[in-house]
Automatic annotation (TrEMBL):
This is 3'(2'),5-bisphosphonucleoside 3'(2')-phosphohydrolase. Mg(2+) binds at E60, D78, L80, D81, D191. It comes from Demequina mangrovi. InterPro entries: CysQ/Inositol_MonoPase, Inositol_monoP_metal-BS, Inositol_monophosphatase-like. GO terms for molecular function: 3'(2'),5'-bisphosphate nucleotidase activity; metal ion binding.
């Protein structure tokens, strides 16, 4: 099985397990979210141990190991991105599976289980062209929009589109549902690795809010900010950020 095939299989399997937990566990709220996190982690850990036993893993739901820092292959996974949305019965949550190899992301698979969808960087289509005259749309957190949102919205004269999971937001840019997603409120590598790989493959601009590259498999997995957008919008977005921040995230 190729890495691309495995990535899709992993993301889909974890998504199916999450749907099973939602419908069969009888749990609600935070307890449902905790059960979902644990169940999806168990599925992904077991499948990676079976199919790629020599690879390292960085997961939100597992203890980190320094061994990954000297590994040539590291799977970066978020078993359930958007735990709040999952526990509320919403559809805007995702499963993230990414592969980092010798310095960069080489694969990303993002499952959006309620849509029966898996986006894989190995085969994702280019982001669709914009419709002439359509207003620009900016994805934003439905619960914790960062302070930088308003300056970017104003610079683009954009509509705000609230969404849950970071993976859903980034995937929405790749799918042409929105034009950009900007975050500066704190994230970790597993929050963005898989969807960033998909976005790059779809031809989108991806960077930190200061324009520097997004780097993965760092000793500290904290990766607090990002910009994902259509390439033609990147100069306006980065300029708006620079004018309204002091460079801190």
């Amino acid at each position: 099985m190729s890495d691309a095939e495995l990535g899709t299989m992993l993301a889909r399997a974890a998504g199916e397990e999450l749907l099973r937990v939602r419908w069969e566990s009888g749990l609600e709220g935070k307890e449902l979210g905790k059960a979902g996190d644990a169940a999806a982690q168990s599925v992904l850990a077991a499948l990676l141990a079976e199919h790629r036993p020599d690879d390292a893993v960085l997961s939100e739901e597992a203890k980190d190991s320094p061994a990954r820092l000297i590994a040539s292959r590291v799977w970066i996974i978020d078993p359930l991105d958007g735990t709040r949305e999952f526990s509320e019965g919403r559809a805007d949550w995702a499963v993230h599976v990414a592969l980092w190899e010798s310095g960069d992301l080489t694969l990303g698979a993002v499952a959006i289980p309620d849509e029966e969808l898996v986006l894989n960087s190995a085969e994702v289509a280019p982001a669709p062209e914009r419709t002439d005259g359509a207003p620009l749309r900016l994805a934003v957190s439905r619960s914790r929009p960062p302070a930088i949102t308003e300056p970017v919205r104003a610079a683009l004269d954009a509509e705000l589109v609230p969404m849950g999971s970071a993976g859903v937001k980034i995937s929405a840019v790749a799918r042409g549902q929105v034009d950009a997603y900007v975050h500066a409120g704190g994230q970790y590598e597993w929050d963005s690795a898989a969807p960033i790989a998909v976005a790059r493959a779809a031809g989108l601009h991806t960077s930190r809010i200061d324009g520097s590259p997004l780097l993965y498999n760092d000793a500290d997995p904290y990766l607090p900010d990002l910009v994902v957008c259509r390439p033609d919008l990147a100069p306006r977005i980065l300029a708006a950020i620079a004018e309204n921040t002091d460079g801190d995230s």
